[in-house]
Amino acid sequence: MTTAAPVTARSTAARPTFARVLSVDALRGLVMILMALDHVRDFVSRDAMQFSPTDLTRTTPAIFLTRWVTHFCAPTFAFTAGLGAYFWLRRRRSNGALSRYLVTRGLWLILIELTLLRFVFFLDYRYTNAFFLLNVIWMLGLSMIVLAVLVHLPPKILIPLSIVVIAGHNLFDGINAQRFGQAAWVWNILHQPGVFRVGSDMAFVAYPLVPWFAVMALGFCAGQVFQWDFLQRQQFLLRTGVALTVAFLILRAVNVYGDPSRWTSQHSVVLTAMSFLNCTKYPPSLLFLLMTLGPALVALACLERISLSDSNPLLVFGRVPFFYFVLHLAVIHAIAILISLARYGRTPFLLVPPPSLGGPADMFPANFGVSLAMVYVLWIAVVVGLYPVCRRFARLKRERRSWWLSYL
Predict the structure, then answer these.
(1) What whole-number distance in Å separates Cα of residue 186 and Cα of residue 180?
(2) What pLDDT, on the 0 to 100 scale, is given for residue 12?
(3) CA distance 276 to 271
(4) What is the mean pLDDT of residues 185-191?
(5) Could you tell me if 335 and 43 are in contact, meaning their C-beta atoms sit under 8 angstroms apart?
(6) pTM above the 0.85 mark?
């Protein structure tokens, strides 16, 4: 991609308009709200302590769909982060400046994952746990660092490269990290979730780099669509979103390639449908990304047709995603602690992550957690409670425009 020309009175129309960027913020806000549901379920759901929500031998349609609907979060985060990088480029007009911003932003996110978010999960300020969870924020940070290099490629190279990575990475599913011996950790970071040792500490990679960086790169390339006129952009987003969704349905039905887990016929239509939708997220398979990014593009097109005020929750949460992410995790963990304190008193597991998040199952009672209905009640309470705080912070970012606020 060539360096963007300075914006003048004649070139102002080539920039993404405010209304168009609002739809991106709104989409991000929507998935952030859904994300809170998943994390409430992780911390306090009784069922989550006992089995995976996608375990078809034990789950129910309600539990499965509660988990499945949140699958849209991570792909949308990565894709809209790429869009945000493109919008940043249009404002700053320099690929070099964008690369520097992406590197510093990426390193900042990785640092937060290893420090602040680790504390939020484990409440271990002394680092006695010696365990690091490399989760979604780590993935976004590392992908930004890779994107800092990729933004210098022209779209005619970057677009097919990103598609090849997304479409072809499942060809390497059969490669196990252990075959690389002492270098197994490299494959864990690149493609296979797993645990490896860092000195005397342990690290678990939940979100490998491939193919997430390619999703972010596609988002960056898709930013050019926001230079088009409204009708042309709407047609592209809708048609592409529908095409991706149809491609998912066809490839999943064929059941040959695109996901390491094949779907199977079950003893009921509902369970068979659940098996069909049960695609692999870690790392995200081709089918997982088609299943999520297709509807996300359709939603993006639809949101652009809706008039949203600055006080709309979708925009409020979508404008402060990082702030919301850290705050909502802290609030949800605090709620889990209060529930345990009220039910069991001061116990050894009070400050320990629940089994659903890797905590020792033998420390927790068999009936630990709350019902799925209560999960939804707590989810709504968390979102409503965070709204005024996030709205104030969004207003602060808009009014002050300090460089350090752009990292929050």
Answers:
(1) 9
(2) 37
(3) 9
(4) 97
(5) yes
(6) yes
